[in-house]
Amino acid sequence: MTQKIRCNWATNQPDIYTVYHDEEWGVPVYEDKKLFEFLVLEGAQAGLSWLTILKRREGYRNAFAGFDVHQVAQFNAQKVEELMQDAGIIRNRLKIVSTIKNAQVFISIQQEFG
């Protein structure tokens, strides 16, 4: 059996990090829903470790409508307040609001470029 070769940053890490390295990192993504998911997660990660975000990925999936860009684009101030109470995500108002704005811009890019 051949041992999988991993980047130094992915060795001796929790399983969630290793699985991310082995199955997702560096793999091209072409599906809009998956691209939006990574946009949301990368925005949440700013200033934090990627491991912190990976551990909350399911929380983000639940909080942000399964990464449905059209639903997220419609989130309002009441939904922002609800998300500020959600322990499954990073409760940073600017990051939450930027996710909603990013969804709106994402849609406009889809409309312009297909």
What does this structure look like?
The longest helix has 21 residues, at 93-113. With 114 residues, this protein is an all-alpha fold. Helix content is 61%, strand content 0%. The chain has helices at residues 15-23, 32-45, 50-55, 57-63, 69-73, 77-83, 93-113. Helix 2 (32-45) runs antiparallel to helix 7 (93-113).
What is the CATH topology descriptor?
Answer: Endonuclease III, domain 1
Mean pLDDT: 95
Largest sheet: none
CATH superfamily: Hypothetical protein, domain 2
Low-confidence stretches: none
Estimated share of beta-strand residues:
under 5%
Which percent range fits the helix content? 55-70%
Number of helices: 7
CATH architecture: Orthogonal Bundle
Based on CA atoms alone, the radius of gyration comes out at: 16 Å
CATH class designation: Mainly Alpha
Short note summarizing the structure:
The protein has 114 residues and is mainly alpha-helical. It has seven helices and no strands. Helices cover 61% and strands 0% of the residues.
